Request: fold
Amino acid sequence: TRILGFESSCDETGVALIEVEGGRPPRLLAQALHSQIAMHQAYGGVVPELASRDHVRRVLPLTREVMAQAGLALSDVDLIAYTQGPGLAGALLVGAGVAVSLAAALEVPALPIHHLEGHLLSPFLSADAPEFPFVALLVSGGHTQLMRVSDVGLYEILGETIDDAAGEAFDKSAKLLGLPYPGGPHLARLAEFGNPQAYALPRPLLHSGKPDFSFAGLKTAVLTQVKKLGDAPCDQAKADLAASTQAAIVEVLVKKSLLALKESGLRRLVVAGGVGANAQLREQLNAVCARRGVRVHYPELSLCTDNGAMIAMAAALRVQRGMAKPRRDGGFEVRPRWDLSAA
Ligand code: ATP
Ligand code: MG
Ligand code: FE
Reply:
């Protein structure tokens, strides 16, 4: 079975082709991605209407690119998967509309996929795929959750953020430091030159005893420090503040992951979502998990943020397990808000 997957929930247009043969690990045949980051940067964040229009422009050329890379024709595709939600309604509608129309034209079924399931299962695109069950730390731009993952489709939320997501905390703090959008990777780069102990920033809920998170207070604390630095802060002070901010976020993510591992009795951790690309997070998780005999799996760096491959992979794993309930009637809906435990 060859599955063509589409991602368009936010500011990346992603298309990928995956092949499923029996029980063997699904194989990524080709993928293409266009990020709209440069387009949105002037506005300091994603402009939904611009995002939708750009998905319209990109999706078919990317699809052609994927088919050319794979050396296959659209008539070789057996199933079309697309991100149904959560995300920006207009952006989702473009990917879903194209996917369902293409499926109708090719007379193949269309399968809606939950975007966060895509993130969660993205480490299955690596050669060293995790085994079920595992604890998942999902840290993206819009979500921060710890989950118990028993199998594909069996997701139990152990804890989540009560306000901002970890990626949001990175991005908002970075913006206060005058860094471009999305600030996470920029803040991480600046932090390399700073002292993580220079500023004592809050770690809300660190000792709550539950795998929950709160990051809203952090950006307020960063704002207070930025104001103290005045109009022309020196580079070292900015780097110190960046390093201290990153240290605060990473410490909470690491401690809460350990708590979830302990509570669940599991010895495997999967980290997914954009913040999973953060080098400090990886380094510290690797260290504490090695001491406890816990295996940690990450997606490839380039697959931490949004992409089509993770959507095609989620579809592939569902197809392999006989869980896919694709539609053939040309109908579809998007779900801008959609709880993963209900997927
Ligand atoms: P969601 O998946 O919750 O709908 P999203 O799709 O916007 O949100 P992702 O694409 O998974 O989120 O991740 C984007 C986020 O990851 C941004 O907040 C970005 O700043 C952050 N990010 C990416 N790389 C890094 C890094 N190296 N360090 C810290 N944060 C990072
Ligand atoms: Mg994005
Ligand atoms: Fe995402």
